[in-house]
From TrEMBL:
Its EC number is 1.5.3.-. Keywords: FAD, Flavoprotein, Oxidoreductase. InterPro entries: FAD-bd_PCMH, FAD-bd_PCMH-like_sf, FAD-bd_PCMH_sub1, FAD-bd_PCMH_sub2, FAD-linked_Oxidoreductase, Oxid_FAD_bind_N. The keyword Oxidoreductase applies. Its cofactor is FAD. Belongs to the oxygen-dependent FAD-linked oxidoreductase family. The lineage of its organism: Bacteria, Bacillati, Actinomycetota, Actinomycetes, Streptosporangiales. PANTHER family: BINDING OXIDOREDUCTASE, PUTATIVE (AFU_ORTHOLOGUE AFUA_1G17690)-RELATED, FAD-BINDING PCMH-TYPE DOMAIN-CONTAINING PROTEIN. It comes from Actinomadura macrotermitis. Residues 22-190 form the FAD-binding PCMH-type domain. This is Mitomycin radical oxidase.
């Protein structure tokens, strides 16, 4: 195990989060290669009066790292696909793109999101809102076991039988309760996958939004649609529909027929696709960059409010269709999501007052904004309390007692 302090060359690079707009003034950085290293890092932190925050790559970093040893787990790179059991076992450093490539060779999917470079572990600890969650639930619902180092430094395997309370908390409650070194989770059959993006000029937004609302009103759980309002520097406004469908191409195209014939179509990448290529749909950046985001859950979609003003200086405003399995009971800390839509707004700090424009858009949507947020959608300044129902938060805080040395990006107990 290597430990870097501010006096060591490479420290600033080692502490850097994925979002370059977030500062991480940590006390030290430990780079682990296995569970023994994780336990050693925990012992080092205890001896030096520090807490430990684990990050494979720094996605979701909040900057809440005062008095923290930053534990880098990218070196825990175990990846095993057991196709007969439909199980994947992955180390804490494995990214979703690696899982999809390996599982896809067997016609299997994991419950991945939009980016291939997000770590499976951090994403899953925060719930994991997937392209396929309408059919199969959050990624955390698919977990069968966690390998962890506990707050007292012991290695343990956590399942629903061995420690039901900790297993419940790790499935969507964040990284506050144990240092996860590996996860085993269920994979799902996907003999056919259809997906891609349709892109129009921005003046067609009302028509595209109307078609989006029509399709999502009674879409089968195999179909997921995300609406994207886009305004990139130097380009005119655009609107996109991103889609995946777990099934045959002909059925997908029939379901998406309300989008056909809308004028102003710039491109259409929809096609049968390899599971390994899932990340190409939104083509998100795969290198660290600065950004300011805000997420919300919506009880309804108010088209007039959403289109009341241009999105600039934001780069994108995304509406995700939820529902299906997400709304059904879940024995996890993430719990069910009753809201039918999620809103995600993003901009870069140099473009203007991004946070102010995000507030304006949220305010315009009024009481359609419920106030709850998916844990993985929390912005750096937002507390974990916004992600949980009151009884869930109370249970998580009780479980946190005695585990104070471990700190999530968004701790369940606010300072």
């Amino acid at each position: 195990m290597r430990i870097l302090t501010p006096a060591d060359p490479g420290f600033d690079q080692a502490r850097r989060p994925w979002n370059l707009a977030v500062d991480q003034p940590v006390q030290a950085v430990a780079e682990a290669a296995d569970a023994a290293d994780v336990a050693a890092a925990l012992a080092y932190a205890r001896a030096n009066g520090l807490a430990v925050t684990a990050q494979p790559s720094g996605h979701g970093a909040s900057g809440d790292v005062d008095g923290v040893l930053l534990l880098r787990t990218a070196g825990l790179d175990e990846l095993e696909i057991r196709p007969d059991e439909r199980i994947a076992r992955v180390g804490a450093g494995i990214q979703w793109g690696q899982v999809l490539a390996a599982a896809g060779e067997h016609g299997l999917i994991g419950l991945a999101g939009s980016s291939p470079v997000v770590s499976v572990t951090g994403y899953t600890l925060g719930g994991g809102l997937s392209w396929f969650s309408r059919k199969h639930g959050n990624a955390c619902d698919a977990v069968r076991a966690f390998d962890v180092v506990t707050a007292d430094g012991a290695e343990a395997r956590i399942t629903a039988d061995s420690d039901p309370d900790l297993f419940w908390a790790l499935r969507g409650g964040g990284g506050d309760f144990a240092l996860v070194t590996a996860i085993e989770f269920e994979l799902f059959p996907a003999p056919h996958l259809f997906g891609g993006r349709m892109l129009w000029s921005g003046d067609r937004t009302p028509e595209v939004l109307a078609a989006f609302q029509e399709i999502t009103a009674d879409a089968p759980e195999e179909l997921t649609l995300w609406l994207e309002l886009l305004h990139f520097p130097g380009a005119p406004p655009m609107v996109a529909i991103d889609a995946t469908y777990l099934g045959e191409e002909a059925a997908a195209r029939a379901l998406l027929r309300p989008l056909d014939g809308i004028p102003g179509l710039i491109s259409d990448s929809r096609a049968r696709m390899r599971i390994a290529d899932l990340g190409t749909i939104t083509a998100e950046p795969t290198d660290p960059s600065p950004g300011v985001s805000r997420g919300e859950l919506l009880s309804r979609l108010d088209a007039e409010a959403l289109l009341s003003a241009p999105i600039a200086p934001l780069l994108s405003v995304q509406i995700r269709h939820l529902g299906g399995a997400l709304a059904r009971p879940s024995d996890s800390a993430a719990g069910p999501i009753a809201e039918p839509y999620a809103l995600y707004m993003f901009g870069i700090p140099s473009a203007g007052d991004i946070a102010a424009r995000q507030r304006e858009m949220a305010d315009a949507l009024g009481d359609a904004v419920t106030g709850r947020k998916p844990y993985n959608f929390l912005a750096p300044h937002e507390p974990a309390a916004l992600a949980f129902a009151p009884d869930t938060l109370d249970r998580l805080r009780k479980l946190k007692e005695g585990r104070e040395i471990i700190r999530a990006n968004h701790p369940v107990v606010s300072k």
